[in-house]
Amino acid sequence: LVPQTKTGIALLYDEVSENAYDIRLKLTKEVLTIQKQDVVCVSGSDHSANHRTVKLRRQPVGGLGLSIKGGAEHKVPVVISKIFKDQAADQTGMLFIGDAIIQVNGINVESATHEEVVHLLRNAGDEVTITVQYLREAPSFLKLPLGSPGPSSDHSSGASSPLFDSGLHLNGNSTNTAPSSPSSPIANEPKYEKRWLDALSVPLSMARISRYKTGTDKLRSNAFEVLALDGVSTGILQLYTAQESADWLRAISTNISDLTLQNMKMANKCCSPSDQVIHMGWVNERLEGTDSSQLYKFKFLALKGSSFYIFSTPPVSTLDWVRAEKIYNLCDVIFKIHKLWLADDCWLQANLYLGIHQDYDFEDQRPYCFSVLVGHGKSHYFNVELGNELAVWEKSFQRAIFLEVQRTGSKTYVCSWQGDTLCFTVDFALGFTCFDSKTKNVLWRFKFSQLKGSSDDGKTRVKLLFQNLDTKQIETKELEFQDLTAVLHCIHSFIAAKVASVDPVFMDSQSIARKYMYSN
């Protein structure tokens, strides 16, 4: 993975006010920074850059040289929306598009309507003193240009509405017919510039991305949120096009994955070769509510050594590994892809390959879902945000399970048949062996290749169908287990690992998620 660096303009959406604000995104290898525009003092004595008081001389041609938008009736201050080049406002060097007007000739206008401010400015005489403060979160419906000062050819005042500019480059009620001296900056006056300033930095190590509206299965349109390990959120980042949104998601996801890889390498330095972290990352787990409503919760999964871990927060130190919500042995679980929004034949292939005919009544709207089937017929149902994450989880589970099978070599389960207590062993080298638990006498033994089918009652009893190599006849062996699903999962894992060791290309060709990713 090559870490991405990127900058671009986006909107920050406020769900409470339902307004969106212009922001700039800056992505580095380790941090996503949100920048907001502000006016800063770059030289001279710094009167508070927050409030600037500027004197304007109304000119016979061009008036005050600016236009305004907004007003209290729309729950926004009146802001400067245009500054005309080389006219009064521009010549001061102290006014910017996006400045909110606080006072006009000492009169506070913070809660004034659009028309009131227009009237005040037009009747304020030849010399107008205005106090302004840059509005860092100007709602996007004001449609303010990001550049400043903005060259504009539109000199019409238009209608007085917050969505139209009221032009104050007109003469107003000027009594002075002689050309007035320009409103120019004085030598010792402070100089101001409009700049993008860092407002929030979100570290990407162990961060997570969310594309869904909280508590729903509804995908946000061209929008997402990035949450840091400590829960700090970027807020909802709205991009202008689907392509931009996809590019940003890919870039941020790449950097998170790269940092996760570094964290894994650090963790693995402290672990024995048989207890290495193979993969870890954030997913959404679906929780079944009492009213059967679907609710997702962020969970952090890890494949490490012989175990599959489910955490509510990522393990940061070595001690954290013991506080997982759930820990399962990898030989006892099965990874199953549920949903890719693929054509029906791929569904069929997935079911055939996985050999699991469990009926799930999932009317889920989320793509990129997988489940991990665990003992006693239970399962965990997960969803990831991006398709490539699904492919990585599929490959990682496969690898982790195969390594665990090869390390373990064999697993023995206590079982019974017709009142006798027996032992059933699945062995990577030898296949299946059944022996008497007391006398240790071997009752029967078959290779993996001899298993031709199986059926079970869904509770404790299983029938295994083996082909006798000499007679070619099918022999049926029946056994009863306390945790039948764990045994069936173990058989599945050992056979899959055996196939992979003999023919890895075949296993790769069966990868549902990767096949989908490459075709896209």
Descriptive account of the structure:
- With 520 residues, the chain is an alpha+beta fold.
- Among the domains are: 49-136, PDZ domain (Pdz3 Domain), CATH 2.30.42.10; 271-356 and 366-398, PH-domain like; 409-518, Pleckstrin-homology domain (PH domain)/Phosphotyrosine-binding domain (PTB) (PH-domain like).
- Helix content is 21%, strand content 36%.
- It is built from eight helices and 28 strands.
- Helix 5 (387-408) runs antiparallel to helix 8 (512-519).
- The radius of gyration is 34 Å and the shape is rod-shaped.
- It is found in: Cytoplasm, Cytoskeleton.
Question: What features would you highlight for this structure?
Answer:
single chain; 520 residues; PH-domain like; structural molecule activity; alpha+beta; 7-stranded antiparallel beta sheet
Global structural class: alpha+beta
Name the shape in a single word. rod-shaped
Strand composition percent = 35-45%
Tally of DSSP helical segments = 8
The average pLDDT value, as a whole number, equals: 83
Placed side by side, the strands forming the largest sheet appear as 11-3-2-1-14-13-12
Give helix % range.
10-25%
CATH topology of one domain: PH-domain like
How many strand segments? 28
Report on the biggest sheet. Answer: 7 strands, antiparallel
